[in-house]
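Sample A.
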Amino acid sequence: MELRVVPSRFLRGNWRSIKKILQTALPYSGDTWTLESIYKDLKDEYCQLWVAINDKYEIQAVCVTKIVIYPTGKRLSIVVVAGFNIQEWISYFKAIERFAEDKGCDIIEFVGRPGWERMLKRKGFHKTHIVMRYIIGE
């Protein structure tokens, strides 16, 4: 298994597989992204596409990241992660860390479901805050 960032041209022949995997996570992403917005930002290279590929060259997981510049520093934001057999590919997280460091980021941030906390804690992540929502009109 390998986790690597791929060029935007990878979308052309693989979007159907990528979309199928992303659709499983988007309902849990806090309504901040759509398939269309992810596709556009990947195509326009505002975001980065990571794929975990098994020995049969099948996509097992997809991760979308985005470099965000705040007044306090540059961060790599993990926008969405989805896939199968997470225990097999999460161990390749160092590739994302090296990418972030090479791009001058000082922090990797991730907003996700509570279940991610336990898994990412093992990778050195720690909870800094929670996200709460109030939907106007409900």
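Sample B.
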Amino acid sequence: MAGKEGRSGKAETPWAAVLKLTLNEVDPASGKRKLRRLAEVTVDLALGGDMDAIEQIANRLDGRPAQAVSLDVHDDTGDGVRELLARLAAAQLRAQAAIGVIVDGGASALPDGSGGASAVPRRWYTPLRRS
């Protein structure tokens, strides 16, 4: 079973394959599948107030809560961020000029071919028509 793809599209590990086999076996003491017994024990623990068991059940039924991600850029003056954005815009415009793309609805943002930092595109791009 190793190497078989699981639901996520990733190859199933040998450990996961053995766990699945074991959990599908019948427990001789109860006559139920071991996976069923494991679920019953988890529910019993949750009913007894075990927060880990409660969390496991909630995650399986409702899905895990989305993890918050934040990005905080600290620059008191903002000059560093503005300079970086201007340099990125200039590089983008130079690349567009090199492949024959202009800013839609206006004159070229690079009249002298320099790609100056003041040229910040504000609209979608249109390929140049070649005749």
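B remarks: Confidence is low (pLDDT under 50) at residues 105-112, 114-125. Helices lie at 14-24, 34-47, 51-62, 79-99.
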